[in-house]
Amino acid sequence: MTPPRGAAAPLLSLTFVLAAALSLAGCADRPTTHHNPGTSHEQATGTSGTLLTARDEAGHRLREVPAATAPTVRVETRPDSEGGWNVHLTVERFRFTPDSTGGAALPGRGHARLLADGRETARLYGSWGYVPPGVRTLTVRLHADDHTVWAVAGAPVQATVRLDGAAATSAPPSPRPSGTPASAPASSPASAPPSPRPSDTGRTVTLTITGKTVQPPPSRIELKKGERLTLRVTGDRADTLHVHGYDRELPLSPGVPATLTLTADRTGLFEVETHDSGLLLTQLVVR
């Protein structure tokens, strides 16, 4: 039977209403990174890892994950020309997610927090940051989006560096006995190959580049202010060596040893790298 004239429009409207309702119902099942109103950050809906009762110094709970899948962080610092230190983070199995901060703890996501001499001073939502003058020890700790601390074996995933040029230590840290408070342990500097001994004419360091490999492996060369350093570099491809901070460059030809000599008259931490291949060859620590 033909429907009465004018009935088609209400039926069409009802069809659209039902479609919209079904669409909204389907959205309810989609995962979200933001917690429900009225819940704390620790009660967010993330299911990654195991939420521990232990807390760090600022009261953030630790979120335990297996070492094989845990994020890691390394820290490098460079003196800023106007004082203080520029901080660079290198992370693995982790990405910064400022758009979902305050949401659920999803694997390998979150932000970093800076602890200057044991006190939390800033958050980082990317790989670069800044530390003002006067700070002696810097710790960088990785947090999930819900502000819990990523942890391995009951200890925070973090790295610590002394701002006098000492090497950083990176997570995962060594396990702590069960029930031990989760305050950040004092980290001892990572061991590095000993610097070459200076001679009467200064110090000579020989480096060889093969593909993406540097021998000896990149480490830190300790120098006293005013000491002379000679870098003797042989590479397997054409490139340019650059000493940051001193603005010294050295062309490299395949298989031909090249030599650069400088006087370490500026204090701080300076990287020596290649321009084209972007390899870190070594770091100079001048005191």
Rg computed from alpha carbons, rounded to a whole number of angstroms: 27 Å
Report how far apart the termini are.
97 Å
Please report the number of helical segments: 1
Mean pLDDT: 77
The helix/strand order is HEEEEEEEEEEEEEEEEEEEEE
Q: What is the makeup of the main sheet?
A: 5 strands, mixed
- Shape type: elongated
Write a compact overview of the structure shown.
This protein has 287 residues and is mainly beta. 7% of the residues lie in helices and 41% in strands.
Task: Give the helices and strands, then pairings.
Elements: H1 8-27, E1 50-55, E2 61-64, E3 72-79, E4 85-92, E5 95-96, E6 109-116, E7 119-124, E8 128-131, E9 137-143, E10 149-152, E11 155-156, E12 158-162, E13 203-210, E14 213-215, E15 220-223, E16 228-235, E17 239-243, E18 248-252, E19 258-263, E20 268-274, E21 280-286
Parallel strand pairs: 2-10, 5-6, 13-16, 15-21
Antiparallel strand pairs: 1-2, 3-4, 4-8, 6-7, 6-9, 9-12, 10-11, 13-14, 16-19, 17-18, 17-20, 20-21
What does this structure look like?
- The chain has one helix spanning 8-27; strands at 50-55, 61-64, 72-79, 85-92, 95-96, 109-116, 119-124, 128-131, 137-143, 149-152, 155-156, 158-162, 203-210, 213-215, 220-223, 228-235, 239-243, 248-252, 258-263, 268-274, 280-286.
- It is mainly beta.
- The strands form 5 sheets. Strands 5, 6, 7, 9 and 12 form a 5-stranded mixed beta sheet that branches. Strands 15-21-20-17-18 form a 5-stranded mixed beta sheet, with no helix packed on it. A 4-stranded mixed beta sheet has the order 1-2-10-11, with no helix packed on it.
- It starts with 7 loop residues before the first helix and ends with a strand.
